[in-house]
Amino acid sequence: MMEDFNSETDSDYTSYWRDWFISSRGNEYFCEIDEEYLTDRFNLTGLNTEVPYYQYALDLVTDVFDLDADDDLREQIEKSARHLYGLVHARYIVTTRGLAKMVEKWKKNDFGKCPRVMCDGNPLLPTGQHDLPNMSTVRLYCSRCEDIYNPKSSRHASIDGAYFGSSFTSMLFQVYPALLPEKSTRRYEPRIYGFRVHASAALARWQDRYREETRARLRDAGVEVKYVEDDEDEELEDEEDEEEPGIDTAQARVEGDAASSRMDLGR
């Protein structure tokens, strides 16, 4: 990212860092943090222990960076500045001003639309599954089906979820309840030639699959278990075996009677 500023002076670099960061590809999910919020030390409590080169990174984010450093050090400071901005961003977007900015981005579909067909393109919101960094990447929350999805772009998929936090989406709809859409009650119904598949058929398939999986697990554990169905199958096989000799005996009697009749006619 430092290559973007090779043609710029140090003054340009330090004066427009936040504008550059927001307009960079892959950072479309972020909103611009107010300078008053960034300069209030109370809002940055505890971040000095989580961000390397904290003071230099803060100076860079607040456009007061003035250090003659080599390229390696500048790269480390730039990395810390992006991390610091992300952590502050998670705190900012749950404030009144931050929520208003994110709502505007949400209305413009800056975060994309829900891929679920039954949600009719409901706008998504970025959210994190954890509040601590380096635990999970950002996800996209749909307020209609109340599920989360992975971003389509690999640039967005690499953003840390802690930069948005796990409370942002719930906070937004608590403050703006009128924006909460009606829940999706429609579900896809499997059909065969236009007829809906009966629920008992799906239940029977699930039971058969679950039974086979259970048998396989028990077999792998060295446990042999018989089901009621197995006993019924064995009983049916025994009955069939018993019926076959009876049929043979009846046939033998018929053949014996026919032979006796022929002997009587011969006499």
TrEMBL record:
Organism of origin: Aspergillus lucknowensis
Which segments show compositional bias classed as Acidic residues? 229-246
Provide the protein name: Casein kinase II subunit beta
Subunit record text: Tetramer of two alpha and two beta subunits.
Region of interest called Disordered, as start-end residue ranges on this chain: 227-267
Give the highest taxon in the source lineage: Eukaryota
What is the stated purpose of this protein? Regulatory subunit of casein kinase II/CK2. As part of the kinase complex regulates the basal catalytic activity of the alpha subunit a constitutively active serine/threonine-protein kinase that phosphorylates a large number of substrates containing acidic residues C-terminal to the phosphorylated serine or threonine.
- Please give the coiled-coil regions recorded for this protein: none
By sequence similarity, the record places it as follows:
Belongs to the casein kinase 2 subunit beta family.
Q: Which InterPro entries match?
A: Casein_kin_II_reg-sub_N, Casein_kinase_II_beta-like, Casein_kinase_II_reg-sub
